[in-house]
Amino acid sequence: MDWDNARVFLAICRQGTLRAAAAELRVDQATVGRRLAALEKSLDVRLFLRTPGGYLPTPAGERARLGAEQMEQAAHRLQREMQGTDRRLSGTVRLACTDTTATTFLIPALAGLHRQHPDVRVVLSVSTQLTNLTRREADLAVRVLRPDSPDLIARHLSRREVGLYASRDYLARHGEPTPGSAFADHDVVIYQAGVSRLHGDSLCGEPIANARVAMEVNTGMMLAQAVRAGLGIGEVPTHLAESLEELVRIWPQRSEEYDLWLVMHRDLHRTARVRAVADAVVDALT
């Protein structure tokens, strides 16, 4: 199986359509279609059922996926091992974190890194979704969960706090909620389901059963901005809220804490450029 064709095959498996696979691989859709056709011809088997909802692997496709994933793991392992011997302070480093962490801490730190090592190029991805370091979706990640994979190295950075906040305008219109009322007669801003482990059906320990959900968001920065605009009450990291003058903390005795971890693949921790970015992250967050 040709590795280039196998990469295309795996992207279709994971994305479900040629268009989405092309976007993941950063090629055009026609190229993806040609690669798939070439792979099916070389294997003399149909790998996908073409349905209105997308491409579904056939039984042969499911078996081929196992082999293709082994090829992918071997290719990534080779790449990591070669990069692990690289002592040059140049090249690309992929860093993943949340937008609140990037805005408050990492952008200034990375600006300093660039002045010191201008040939190190950082590809910064901000998301609440966990990146897969084994598949090289990132070289480094700042996470709130410590990974349990033996292939990953984790360093504890700091413990942070979130509190309940509302805008001055919101409090002037609605007043503060009453503890124990489950936010009766109040609006709240919450995360979309599955976005954050810290958030569910309560805010800082107070149920939201009686609240009106004014907005659901998928990033911390959007939540802070929605609260700042007066849409409702929400949990905001205290380090971010302190920089937004419009926000007022409610029930300061209530809070939630979370840990930040720097995670990297074991094969990359001696790569000079990865080490340089890691050091900048550690300096910014410890």
Quick structural summary:
This protein has 286 residues and is an alpha/beta fold. It has helices at residues 3-15, 18-25, 29-43, 59-83, 99-116, 168-174, 220-228, 238-241, 272-285, and strands at 48-51, 54-57, 91-97, 120-126, 140-143, 152-167, 187-191, 202-203, 206-207, 212-217, 234-237, 247-250, 256-265. Strands 3, 4, 5, 6, 11, 12 and 13 form a seven-stranded mixed sheet that branches. A two-stranded antiparallel ribbon has the order 1-2.
Report on this model:
It is globular, with a radius of gyration of 23 Å. Helix 1 packs across helix 2 (18-25), helix 2 packs across helix 3 and helix 5 (99-116) crosses helix 9. The mean pLDDT is 88. The longest helix has 25 residues, at 59-83. It has helices at residues 3-15, 18-25, 29-43, 59-83, 99-116, 168-174, 220-228, 238-241, 272-285; strands at 48-51, 54-57, 91-97, 120-126, 140-143, 152-167, 187-191, 202-203, 206-207, 212-217, 234-237, 247-250, 256-265. The strands form 4 sheets. Strands 3, 4, 5, 6, 11, 12 and 13 form a 7-stranded mixed beta sheet that branches. It is an alpha/beta fold and 286 residues long. It has 9 helices and 13 strands.
